Batch of 2 targets.
Target 1
Amino acid sequence: ETGVTQSPTHLIKTRGQQVTLRCSSQSGHNTVSWYQQALGQGPQFIFQYYREEENGRGNFPPRFSGLQFPNYSSELNVNALELDDSALYLCASSLDRGQETQYFGPGTRLLVL
Amino acid sequence: DQQVKQNSPSLSVQEGRISILNCDYTNSMFDYFLWYKKYPAEGPTFLISISSIKDKNEDGRFTAFLNKSAKHLSLHIVPSQPGDSAVYFCAASAIRTGANNLFFGTGTRLTVIP
């Protein structure tokens, strides 16, 4: 059984640019959540996708957007990058949106200069 | 507003002894609680969970405790091993609302000394 995978592992961008991060959910999982983890903090919920529809959103501006594809893989897009967007971006999948346990990928570390 | 808090940023324990990690929450809608372990350059790894209908859940060396009236949970690791050295996060969700998004604490770095 393949776990959650994310790409790329590291990324460097400059302020104002746009970035796309990718996530493949664990086999059989239809729900994907994205989290941002700033240095020294716990992960913060960005949004969740369930069967290709957004199923909840945290306190992040609209320049954070996402997609989920028919195979349940997902993308996180961030427009107009700011310095404070530098963080570890984590993707987690669960069997269903009502399933209690989420399983995390290794994350993408984004640095905005 | 931090709804889940881990007030101890670090903890050092001798190998073989008990490690106790603590977590407090404020939102009474939370009904499911999880502990994750995180090594550097890796994503959080699920360790153990506990539902609000229980006050204890045991899995090998790991036991999760929940005190609903105090809005407090803890993770006991017995006996502690050097491989347990990592950052531990507690997380909470309100499954009954139909959403399973997690609210995390800021983590406690556990160091197990050989």
Note: The interface with chain B takes residues 4, 6, 31, 33, 35, 40-45, 48, 55-56, 58, 90, 92, 94, 97-107 of chain A (CB under 8 Å).
Target 2
Amino acid sequence: GAVVSQHPSRVICKSGTSVKIECRSLDFQATTMFWYRQFPKQSLMLMATSNEGSKATYEQGVEKDKFLINHASLTLSTLTVTSAHPEDSSFYICSARASTGETSYTFGSGTRLTVV
Amino acid sequence: DQQVKQNSPSLSVQEGRISILNCDYTNSMFDYFLWYKKYPAEGPTFLISISSIKDKNEDGRFTVFLNKSAKHLSLHIVPSQPGDSAVYFCAASAWAGSYQLTFGKGTKLSVIP
């Protein structure tokens, strides 16, 4: 079945540095990638939606200059947390969809970011 | 290998009837299970959860049943309403405090008025 590989699974970085998280669709072409941030009580917040070759659409309240999303190919999307601060510590998950008609979403395994 | 499986990509139910969404898992380390609901253009929202020490958890119209021996859980919605039409994701984690969730691929529920 469709697999999305998300790396790294865990990362610890110093405050002020940048961290890149990758999501790769291994056996299908991901027309659309979604990036989520997980909050306490298991709630997921949609941060942005990216379509291959175009700029990401950010949700209200998400800083596009801080959370850089690149979807350069049909199999790779990256989220870069720039100038990370401790409050950015969270669990980030990507999800991919093969086409606009698909209702099947494949989630990555998530990245636990800790900013110290 | 897909550790959380939702084998039905879609389900249609008449308004007022029961909706049953199914989920199977393979990892015996999972002991906390969650259901999320997703409307188009929104992120999934948490709906209901169950710990492996229980076999049933109820919240209003939503009930989740867990069969550990079969590694199977189901979400029952009674009565179904048109506003319940959405994609439902099953997710699992190894313990309730863990952030790391493994998701199924989702089931699109359509409730027909």
Note: The two ends of chain A are 37 Å apart (CA to CA).
